[in-house]
Design goal:
Shape: elongated
Largest sheet: 5 strands, parallel
CATH architecture of the largest domain: Orthogonal Bundle
Protein name: MerR family transcriptional regulator
GO molecular function: DNA binding; DNA-binding transcription factor activity
Distance between the termini: 43 Å
CATH class of the largest domain: Mainly Alpha
Strand content: 5-15%
CATH topology of the largest domain: Multidrug-efflux Transporter Regulator, Chain: A, Domain 2
Number of helices: 13
InterPro entries: Cbl-bd_cap, DNA-bd_dom_put_sf, MerR-type_HTH_dom, MerR_fam, Meth_synthase_dom
Organism: Polaribacter sejongensis
Order of helices and strands: EHHEEHHHHHHHEHEHEHEEH
Keywords: DNA-binding, Repressor, Transcription, Transcription regulation
Number of strands: 8
C-alpha cells in the first residue's frame, strides 16, 4: 500500500474530476465544500478524503443537484446519495465518473453495481467500447500527470480483466469449427494486456479459435506453433515494450521467424509506426488500433 497517493494538488483534483481549479476554489470559499491543508512551505494540498468528496459532489451536480443543496448535506448523506445515484444511472459520463470513484476508494462493490446497471441497457461489447475505453483513456492521462499511483491502476485494471474473462468464457461453447488459429501474446517484459484480452474476446465472439499465451512471452516460445501444420496467425500488442531503440531489431527477428513459415503475424499499437519503413515480409501486418484490425478480420 506504500504506492497509494494520499496527497493531491488542486491540479490533480482538476485532472481527475474534470472541474476547473478556479471552480473548485469558488466551491471552497462560497460553500466550504473542501478544506485543503497546507504544507510546511505553505503549499495547499488535499487528502484522499477530499478527492472522494469532490468526485461525489461532481456526480450529484452533473445530475442537476445544485451545489447550494449539496453543501448542506452531511458527509454521510453525501456518500449515500452518491452511491444511490451511481447505482441508478446508466449514462456513460456518470458511469465513468463512478468508476473513477471506485478506483480511488478501492470500492469493488461500487464498480460491480455500476457494471450491472450498465448491463441492463448495453451489451458487454458496448460497455467496453463506450465506457471502459474512455475510462481507461482517462486513467492514461492521470498517469501522465502523476495523479495516479500503481495500486489504483492495478485495482481497477484487475476488475476490468475479470469482466473480460467472464464474458469470454461465456462464448467458448459457441466457437465454430475453423482451420485458422489466432495465437495472442505480449512481448517480453510487456504486462499491459487489457487490450489484447479484449481482442481475444472479439475474436471468440466472431467464432474464431484462439490460444491466449498472455504477458511477457519471448519469441522463441512460439516455436511449437511455427512447426505446426495448422493455419496460424500470431497477434501481439505493443504499448511499452520493446523499447523504442530496440523495436526495429525486434521486428527484424520476427521477420526472420515468419518469412518462410507460412504463418502470419499481426502487431497492434501506435508503436508499429516506427517500423513501417522496414522491408518486412508481406506476412507481417501492422495496425494502429484493435478497431483497425477487426475491420479486416
Amino acid at each position: 500500500m506504500n504506492n497509494i497517493k494520499l496527497d493531491f494538488t488542486i491540479k490533480d483534483l482538476e485532472n481527475i474530476s474534470g472541474i476547473k481549479a478556479h471552480t473548485i476554489r469558488i466551491w471552497e470559499k462560497r460553500y466550504n465544500l473542501l478544506e485543503p491543508k497546507r504544507s510546511e512551505t505553505n503549499i495547499r494540498f488535499y487528502s484522499n478524503e477530499d478527492l472522494q468528496k469532490l468526485l461525489n459532489i461532481v456526480l450529484l451536480n452533473n445530475n442537476d443537484i445544485k451545489i447550494s443543496k449539496i453543501s448542506k448535506m452531511s458527509d454521510e448523506e453525501l456518500i449515500l446519495q452518491t452511491r444511490a445515484l451511481a447505482f441508478e444511472t446508466s449514462l456513460n459520463d456518470e458511469s465513468i465518473n463512478a468508476l473513477k470513484l471506485s478506483m480511488f476508494q478501492f470500492d469493488k462493490r461500487l464498480f460491480n453495481n455500476v457494471y450491472e446497471k450498465l448491463l441492463e441497457e448495453k451489451t458487454f461489447q458496448e460497455i467496453f467500447q463506450e465506457v471502459f475505453i474512455p475510462f481507461l483513456n482517462d486513467v492514461g492521462l492521470l498517469w501522465q500527470t502523476d495523479t495516479l499511483k500503481p495500486a489504483h491502476e492495478h485495482f481497477i485494471s484487475n476488475l476490468i480483466v475479470q469482466k473480460i474473462l467472464i464474458n469470454t468464457e461465456k462464448l467458448q461453447f459457441d466457437i465454430s469449427e475453423s482451420s485458422k488459429t489466432y495465437v495472442l501474446f505480449l512481448p517480453e517484459n510487456e504486462i499491459h494486456e487489457i487490450g489484447l484480452l479484449y481482442l481475444n474476446y472479439e475474436l471468440v465472439l466472431r467464432g474464431a479459435h484462439t490460444i491466449y499465451l498472455g504477458q511477457s512471452l519471448p519469441l522463441n516460445n512460439l516455436d511449437y506453433f511455427l512447426e505446426s501444420d495448422n493455419e496460424i496467425c500470431f497477434i501481439t500488442s505493443l504499448t511499452i515494450k520493446p523499447y523504442d531503440d530496440k523495436i526495429e531489431d525486434y521486428f527484424k527477428e520476427i521477420d526472420v521467424m515468419i518469412r518462410n513459415s507460412g504463418k502470419t503475424f499481426v502487431a497492434i499499437g501506435q508503436k508499429v509506426n516506427q517500423v513501417k519503413h522496414l522491408d518486412l515480409s508481406p506476412q507481417i501486418h501492422l495496425h494502429n488500433t484493435i478497431t483497425d484490425l477487426l475491420k479486416v478480420i
